Structures are given as C-alpha cells and as structure tokens.
Amino acid sequence: MKGTVGELGEFGLIRELTSRLTSNPAVRLGPGDDAAVVAAPDRRVVATVDALIEGRHFRRDWSTAYDVGRKAAAQNLADIAAMGAVPTAVLLALVVPADLPVTWPVELMDGIRDECQVAGAAVAGGDVVRGDTIMVSITALGDLRNREPVTRSGARPGDIIAVTGWLGWSAAGFAVLSRGFRSPRAFVEAHRRPEPPYHAGPAAADLGATAMTDVSDGLVADLGHIATASGVRIDLKSADIDVPVQMADIGQAVGVDPLHWVLTGGEDHAIVAAFPPDAKLPARWRIIGEVLKPAGTPQVTVDGAPWDKAGGWDHFGGQD
Amino acid sequence: MKGTVGELGEFGLIRELTSRLTSNPAVRLGPGDDAAVVAAPDRRVVATVDALIEGRHFRRDWSTAYDVGRKAAAQNLADIAAMGAVPTAVLLALVVPADLPVTWPVELMDGIRDECQVAGAAVAGGDVVRGDTIMVSITALGDLRNREPVTRSGARPGDIIAVTGWLGWSAAGFAVLSRGFRSPRAFVEAHRRPEPPYHAGPAAADLGATAMTDVSDGLVADLGHIATASGVRIDLKSADIDVPVQMADIGQAVGVDPLHWVLTGGEDHAIVAAFPPDAKLPARWRIIGEVLKPAGTPQVTVDGAPWDKAGGWDHFGGQD
C-alpha cells in the first residue's frame, strides 16, 4: 500500500479501513451508515471512551501503528471488563495528518481489530478526520449479561484486595526504552502491547467482588480511587506483592526500586478488586492487601504507611 | 472561574465538568467509574462517533465554546435519530491545550449538556487529555424502542423523497461569516448552532421510511449515499425545494445561487428519507423528489441532470 492519507482521501481511507474488519454477532449493523447497531442483550450497555495523542501517549519510533491499535483498544476494553461486563464493540475516532503514510492507519486498524478479537468484541464504526497530530479515540461498549456492574464504591472494611494480570511490566519496559535499550524484550513488549485479563472482570463479579477497577494509572493510584469512592483505607502488604526476578535486575541496572514500578506503573491493565474475606479466588488471583476503616482521609497504604513515591498520572501535571 | 486547564489539572477539570451535568433515567451509572452504564431497553444500542478539530470544524473567534458543544452534540445525536432511534447518552473525549482558559471546556460541556437535553439524552462519561489542538470527539448512543433501524440501503424505485428540518442555513451563515459579517443573525445562528429535528427520525421510521440519513455533508451528497447503498437513482425537483427569501437575498449579495446552499450545504442536520409513495407524511415533511431505477451508476440528479456544482465534503480534499 503506497501513498499518504491525503492522496487516498477520506472516503478511500474509510473504505480501506473497513475492508479489513471482521464480523461479530454482537455487531448487528457495522460501519457505513449514520450509526452502528450493537447487541445489548442485558438491556443495559456499558460504555467508556479514551483518547491517545501522539507524543503524549505513544511514540511512532517506539511503537508500531499495530501496537498503538492493540494498546488503545486494550485500555478501553479493560475498562469494560473492570465493570464486570463482556466487551461487545468499539468505535474509533481517528485524527490523521494528510502526509501520514496510509500504512499507519491501516496497521492501527489491524491492531484494534485483533485486540477486539482477543476480548470477544469487534469494530462497529468510526470517524476519520484530518488534523496536525495523530489522535486515536476509542469508545468501547460491553454487556453485563445480567450481572450487576461492579463499581469503585462497594469496598467494605474486612474485604480482601486481590489482583490478576501484570503489574509494573509496562513501566519497566518504558524505563528500558527511555534509556535507549530495546531489551529485555518481555518488558518492552509489555509496554508496547498490554495483555489485560479481560475474562477476569466478569469472573470477579461472579466471585462476589464488591469493588473493582483496572490498573491504568498505577496500583496505588487506582486503588486510591476505590478507597475514596468506598470511604475506606486499603493497606497493601509488600511481602505479598511479587516482583519478578528479571524486573529486579532491570531495577538494579537503572537504579530504581522495582517495587515502585509494581505499585505505581500503569498501562498493564491488571484487574484489581475487593472481595469478601471468604471469597474463593482461583489461583491466578493474588491477595495483596486488605480493606480497613479509614483513619482520617480514605487512602492507600503499603505496610501501614503511605507510599511516598506514589501518585496518579495527571495528564496536565509535570510528567510528560 | 479563573485560570487555565493546566493550572486546574486533569482531575480538577473533570470534577468541574461533571459537576455541571444533569441526571437522566437512561444513565444508570454516570461519570466517575471505569465505564458508564446506559439503559438499552431494546436489547440493541445504536452508536456513532464524530470528531471535531479546532480550525477545521470550528473557530473560536466565530463560535463560543457553548455553541461548539451544542453543535458537536447535535451532529452525533442527529445520526442516532437518522437511524430511527431515540438518543439516550453521549460520551465525550476532549483534547485541550494546557494554556486554554478553564471557561472554554466548562462552557463546551454546558453546550453538550443542553443539546443532549433537547434530544432527551444525557452525558454519561468521558475522557480529558492534554494536546496542542482542541479536539472534541463525541460518541452518541440511542435506543430503537423496538423499531427496526432505518439504514441507507432500503430505498426502492417508486419511493418518494421527503425532508424535514433546515437546509442550507448553515452554509449561508458560513458564507456571511466568511465575508466578515455577523448578520443576518438567523443564518449566523444556524451555522453556530444547528437544530436537528430529532423527533423526526423515529417518527419517519413509524411512517414507513425505507431509507434515511441526516444531512451533514449536503443534501445531494447525503442522498448520494442512499442512492449508492440502495442501488437507485434519486431525482430531486428544484421547483419543490424551498429557498427562503432572506437566503435568496444573501445569495444575491454575495453572488451565490442560494439553491446551491440548499442542495450542497451541510451541518444543518435535516432528516431526509425515502418513503413508499402512499406514505401519509405530516405537514413538516416536504416531498422534494422521487426514487427511480438507476440509469447506469446510482446517483442523484436535480430535474433529471447531475448537479454539477455538487459534491461531498472530503476531509482530506481541497476544501478547508
């Protein structure tokens, strides 16, 4: 495929993008009309949106278009799963410069399509417009299948905190890439393409989760949202939080406590939830803490003390 | 309200924006969790997304933030209506520069909220990120209430073409603004803030519409999508297409055939549909043409001939 999106034109690009999509029974009417029609058998639809900007959320020299597509879809599909719902469809709003090679949005769409397939969803529609900076905004939809949505506000003192999926891998990969390295490959891959445990969201709802979220901003920050919404304190036990040996090696090489990546690294989209203390959790869930009555302001502590280096990712703040 | 969005920070801005929203029974769980939950009583959800970029789709010196919000919401809510569905909720992805005054996104949100209210919908969630250029992407959701979706592909030879809503008003207003004028006010207002006839979409479905779309790119261009999807020719009768006297006056003043605005001007979001010839249409629908067997390529003609000056809005094409 040759040329730029400007040469291909809006309608040509849309044709090219939609021709690559696969069908899914949940998408009753796909791209090409005023709107899509998506199955919502539960009579409620779960919906979320996120926007990614080039230079801020991804770099073209660090990630392929395909990986950006996988990641952009993953972060939204994980939000659906973290409500206890099953992803059904995504819609894409894409801003592309006219001089961008056509291969870029095409590979992006392939990545979105493939990540949707992993989660059991499909692309239902979208919009493509021209702009100076690449922007990828994805709306994900999901179905609760008669489950009640698991919000952030239901954690109760006495609950346990458990997590499944990867923690800190993307942050360690980012640290490696920032220093100009391309290995260890497992961490670089984890930064480029997260693997959220989509099935774990509805499974946690069935296991009685009282509050749940996916780890997009970092474990301490995202559990902080649960602590605030539920009016509780959450205390994590560092001894129960696994730091992979290879991650410890990277930490030593770059002079960072790898526990910091595990506690504050976002973008892996692990699923973390509060459960009643008697919940029977499958082996892939690790119990990492407990829910306590708040001592003053609701907050997250690690071994009883605030995690000083912790903090959420503020998109307008100092980090960039 | 003082300061910039950079000074307020991401979470402060989100708090400010969500505090202004109103509730709606369709929004079961609003902003503040991993995802929203929206009622979908029909067991299907209609979904669409559009992105607007500053400088390309709006100008801050021509439109207030409030008007941009009204317009951005309107164009998506109109797409929902044009499927025969009732709008239920929207999600907003917003990109804002750090130096933007806080009042801009706040007034934008007020506009989105108020336009949603006109259409019977509400804001269910969103995402705010920092970027160099303002980008407003809105996802709209709707419910079919047991109606079948009215697509673009069902028009049959013998059907009539009818339209309701405004045509060419936004284009005439744009012509006025482009020449540095701020009046006639009715047309400038129409450019800044369209008034789609939301109720007409579901009503047209009930009246037996065989194909439907909203006029976002221009009457001839949007009917062209119906002609192509349905494999038919659509012939419009210029004598049946009303050109308001005031629009004719502007046309004369700026040297443009006002019929051109009516036939090719987009953004008013009128609703145009094909109906069986015996459909009993209420007075606000004007019959403006008929559906014929295609003579060669499916197309739209005016009084039997192609409308030479017509053409869709190609976002990567020459127009800007």
UniProtKB/TrEMBL annotation, chains A, B:
Gene Ontology terms: biological process: thiamine biosynthetic process; thiamine diphosphate biosynthetic process
Binding site for Mg(2+) 5: 217
Location of region: Disordered: 298-320
InterPro entries for the chain: PurM-like_C_dom, PurM-like_C_sf, PurM-like_N, PurM-like_N_sf, ThiL-like
Gene3D superfamilies noted in UniProt: PurM-like C-terminal domain, PurM-like, N-terminal domain
GO molecular function: ATP binding; magnesium ion binding; thiamine-phosphate kinase activity
Binding site for Mg(2+) 2: 50, 79
Keywords, in A-Z order: ATP-binding, Kinase, Magnesium, Metal-binding, Nucleotide-binding, Thiamine biosynthesis, Transferase
Residue span(s) of domain PurM-like N-terminal: 32-142
Binding sites annotated in the UniProt record for Mg(2+) 3: 34, 79, 214
Binding site for ATP: 126-127, 152, 216
Pathway(s) per entry: Cofactor biosynthesis; thiamine diphosphate biosynthesis; thiamine diphosphate from thiamine phosphate: step 1/1
Catalytic activity from the UniProt record: thiamine phosphate + ATP = thiamine diphosphate + ADP
UniProt binding sites for substrate: 57, 267, 313
Function: Catalyzes the ATP-dependent phosphorylation of thiamine-monophosphate (TMP) to form thiamine-pyrophosphate (TPP), the active form of vitamin B1.
Other facts: Reaction mechanism of ThiL seems to utilize a direct, inline transfer of the gamma-phosphate of ATP to TMP rather than a phosphorylated enzyme intermediate.
Sequence similarity: Belongs to the thiamine-monophosphate kinase family.
Name this protein carries in UniProt: Thiamine-monophosphate kinase
